[in-house]
Amino acid sequence: MHAGLGSDTPTDLLVAVEPSRHRAASRRARRAPRPRPARRPGVLLGALLTGGLAAAFLGFSGPAGAASESTSVLAAQQEMLSAEEQLEVLPQASVTVAEAEARLREVAASRAARAEAAVAAEAAAAAAAEAARPKTVMPVDGARLTSGYGGRWGTFHYGIDLAAPMHTPEYAAADGVVLRAGSASGFGLAVYILHENGDVTVYGHMDKILVEPGDYVDAGETIALLGNRGQSTGPHLHFEVHKGGMNGKRVNPVPWLRERGVDI
């Protein structure tokens, strides 16, 4: 017996009503609303703003209860806006300021250590090169000694002559500063170099000078090209040593060179 139908309801009416109820229930089941997805904060914020405007209008023209509702909506909007700002500003992963500062100090210290190590390595390489560098050299490579220090042709020869082909490089015999470079009586052209111990070496008869007064030269640095200028009988270098300065005693260059490890 179905509720709502009397006991005297005809059987054929019951049969007609029952299928109709089943069809209606089936249609309601198909039209059942689907669950709505949760609104995103941005959408919810828009809805709250819209509601806030409506509530504000009601509060202006309606009763006091509507104004109270508007205030509540605005408070909810502010809370929602604050929550969205926090979500946008704060990243998912972070370190503290102290940790970041410690990392900066660590990188700076590492770079300073590398720079210091590079400077030390460069200084060590320079020291090694300086130690290996010769401090005294022959003024001309492969030259032939054609005239020595001493009496010659009724005069005194105050240097040695080293013969070689024209334009053979001439070298500073030791480290020093160029005192003079240019024309010189008897030599045609000459170069004078002052060394650390105060001695001066003299180079004469060259064809071309490659340094200027005031230049610092290392032992073995090219200062001129060998020639045949001045009072000369052939291409050669006239080499002298003035002990203790320009006007010092002119001594034999052969033992002077030998004392410094160079044999002729």
TrEMBL record:
PANTHER family tied to this protein: MUREIN HYDROLASE ACTIVATOR ENVC, PEPTIDASE-RELATED
Signal peptide per UniProt: none
SUPFAM superfamilies listed in its UniProt record: Duplicated hybrid motif
Domain M23ase beta-sheet core: 156-253
Extent of Basic residues compositional bias: 22-39
Record's protein name: Murein DD-endopeptidase MepM and murein hydrolase activator NlpD, contain LysM domain
Organism field: Blastococcus aurantiacus
Keywords of this entry: Hydrolase
GO molecular function terms listed in the Swiss-Prot or TrEMBL record: metalloendopeptidase activity
UniProt keyword Signal, yes or no: no
Region (Disordered): 19-40
